[in-house]
Amino acid sequence: MKQIGAMALEHNQSTDYYYEENDLNDTHDYSQYEMICIKEEVRQFAKVFLPAFFAIAFVIGLAGNSIVVAIYAYYKKQRTKTDVYILNLAVADLLLLFTLPFWAVNAVHGWILGKAMCKVTSALYTVNFVSGMQFLACISIDRYWAVTKAPSQSGVGRPCWIICCCVWMAAILLSTPQLFFYTVNDNSRCIPIFPHHLGASMKASIQILEICIGFVVPFLIMGVCYFITAWTLIKMPNIKKSRPLKVLLTVVIVFIITQLPYNIVKFCQAIDTIYSLITSCDVSKRMDVAIQVTESIALFHSCLNPILYVFMGASFKNYIMKVAKKYGSWRRQRQNMEEIPFDSEGPTEPTSSFSI
Question: Membrane spanning segments where (predicted)?
Fold first, then answer.
């Protein structure tokens, strides 16, 4: 973290902002800094932890989300709105995962791909991280409508694709600061560098905006929709409630466990940026390590999405088994397969059960 009037902290990864060199030359009084906080141990931790974690997340997430995209895009022809949102979610997760090898190399060797790729990769990371959270909210809204409203309202229509476009556009707009301010510093690190007169206020505003759009809003939407959905299921007679309720509870708990710690640390950083609360080098180091660990856990949610939203559905697993039997066995000839809906037990009763 950057501490004005107390110390100059050496930047680690993308947790700080820097002044432009022209703003510092011949105008900055370096005598105000009482100490230099060297974060060599933080960088060493990043060199070991981040590549290992990113490698695991990349392999698991690539396998799961690729299966989801393949099934939804090529084999399942009749889609509900939830199917469309899950497909977009899987695409966002895949694009997010594809940025991880670049950040792993950045942690070990520094950024070696130039300023343009630094900007593009940072923006791509933000676009897909934010859009993924928004699609989770869209899924919760659609499941709420599917359970509490008429079955006819669950079909795919033009509004569904408009919503998807709006989600992607909002995420792209939120990524514009990465295109403007991310660059490669003298230590070959891909980091945000803000002008001196915009540094603290700009970084804090961006962080708080990302917290609101990427966590607070999706969490509130998911919480309200899934609470009402669960309450509706409990009051429904003659249906099996235990499994749908367990799915709902699992989705919410996993979202909180993976996203809440990262956003708490990020909010603390934004507050420190404004009020300069951190004056200890040790505390700053712990904050840097905390942001690395919690952000990695938040990223791992992209690996869990296929399990939470697709593979927990019995119909999807049955569909995969039928596809495997159809294309994996040389003894069977190609034949048309009956379409199996993902959101219900039957194609004409999408609200008869809750299956994500």
Answer: 42-66, 78-97, 117-135, 155-178, 198-227, 239-256
> Are 53 and 46 a contacting pair, CB within 8 Å?
no
- CATH of residue 61's domain is 1.20.1070.10
Q: Which of 97, 61, 56, 76 is nearest to 313 (CA)?
A: 76
Phi, psi of 32 (to 5 degrees): -75, -15
- The answer to whether position 77 is within a domain reads yes
The Cα 238–Cα 235 span in angstroms is 10
Domain range for 253 is 8-328
**In-domain check, residue 348:** no
Residue 3: beta bridge partners?
7
| Residue 127 contacts residue 173 (beta carbons within 8 Å) | no
Instruction: Give bridge partners of residue 36 from the DSSP assignment.
Output: 8
**Dist. CA 84–CA 89, nearest whole Å:** 9
Which uninterrupted H or E stretch holds 276? none
Per-residue pLDDT of the chain (356 residues; tens, 9 = 90+): 333 333 333 334 434 433 343 343 344 443 444 457 888 888 899 999 999 999 999 999 999 999 888 888 777 666 788 888 989 999 999 999 999 999 999 999 999 989 999 999 999 999 999 999 999 999 999 888 888 875 554 456 678 889 999 999 999 998 998 998 899 988 888 988 887 777 677 778 888 998 999 899 999 999 999 999 888 888 877 666 677 788 888 889 999 999 999 999 999 999 988 888 888 899 999 999 999 999 999 999 999 988 888 766 656 666 677 666 766 554 445 444 444 344 443 443 443 334 44
* DSSP codes joined into one string, 10-47: PP-TTSS-B--HHHHTTT--GGG---EE--HHHHHHHH
Q: DSSP letter for 155, please.
A: B
Extract the tokens encoding 8.
Answer: 């100059």
* The two three-digit tokens of residue 203, written as one number: 């970084």
Q: How many domains does the chain have?
A: 1
Token reading at 109:
């060797």
Q: Is residue 1 part of a domain?
A: no
**Structural domain contains residue 47:** yes
